[in-house]
Amino acid sequence: MRTGRAAIEAEIERLLTLLDNLDGDADFEPEPLEEQHDPEAELTWANGLAPGWFVVAERARRKIRN
């Protein structure tokens, strides 16, 4: 049995190969934190559509005025 650095490197490679075989993607990388669900993104409408909270608030505001 190998000891030291070589043993650790071999074990890491073995585990990486195991993970690659499990998920089928040798280049699997988790999404960067910036691209994961961001609650603040719901407060804007960069996609051109007003978010639901804005539509509800605007309808309520218009209802009060009329």
TrEMBL record:
Protein name, entry field: Uncharacterized protein
Taxon lineage: Bacteria, Pseudomonadati, Pseudomonadota, Alphaproteobacteria, Hyphomicrobiales
